[in-house]
Amino acid sequence: MRTNGYERAPLASELGIEPLGVGAWAWGTRRLWGYGSGYGRAEVEAALRESLAAGVRLVDTAEIYGNGESERIIGSILQEGGLPARPVLATKFAPYPYRLSPRSLLRALDGSLRRLGVESVDLYQIHWYSPVPAPGGLLDALAEAVKEGRVRRVGVSNYGAEAMRRAHERLASRGVPLASNQVEYSLLHRAPETDGTLEACRELNVTLIAYSPLAQGLLTGKYAPGSRPAGLVRRFGRDFGERNLRRVQPVVGILREIAEPRGKTPAQVALNWLLAQSTLPIPGAKDAGQARQNAGALGWTLTPEEKERLDLATLGWR
């Protein structure tokens, strides 16, 4: 299905939602993102409500975000009710070395459902690939969860192309389609284009869910040499060194040139570039303003010339 000149992500078409979600990693995560300092429960709730009001319904969380606090926050907001739309809930199982059995996954799912306060989730994902032991048992457990009705769709995260193909085949043998693969993808991280992941997703009709679609804020234009973000994830990340902050400025300049005639922001242009790739980006939002800005990526499309300009400007970031 085409929307505004681009093919919608398959999962978005199947669910009848906009091809944009909101990532909830920062909701309740204190040490890494600074939850409780500058933003808190009220701001997070406003971000969720604003996202839903703008048509952004996919909410992506995980059991390890804030040691379960992200799921608990979402669950408490759901319990309060009065939301402008029903969120589409996605969460993830963390395959730590000591919990790789099918039973571990199903117990973890129970915990996520309890914290979210729901009987089933729309998308349940394995958070990262664990080659030892072979992940077949975890995939079988995902299929079992679907058949039990506790999970509507299943996905993987941080899987390379070949691992994703094997997961797709294993699930198909159990009569369950692989809905998604969540990987890092942005104008500044284009590895999915060169390592075969994006091509495999298109071939298998698997939605590529793009996390860190704004390169953790680098593409917003808020940061420059001498102006680094707060929070451990970004403050000490290699991407936020002074050299990299200087290097990204020409890219941000192009984003601004494309954005300003449309009344858009660099972040909205960067997200729209991902929509044109038929992916489903999940930018974070710590408050209503950020949620509103994210939603501004919807309802329009880059011209082929603008897309090519961004492609060429960021080839060296692969």
UniProtKB/TrEMBL annotation:
Positions of the NADP-dependent oxidoreductase domain: 19-311
Domain of life, source organism: Bacteria
InterPro entries: AKR, AKR_Detox_Biosynth, Aldo/ket_reductase_CS, NAD(P)_OxRdtase_dom_sf, NADP_OxRdtase_dom
Record's keyword terms, sorted: Oxidoreductase
Gene3D superfamilies given in the database record: NADP-dependent oxidoreductase domain
A GO molecular function held by the record: oxidoreductase activity
Protein name per UniProt: Aldo/keto reductase
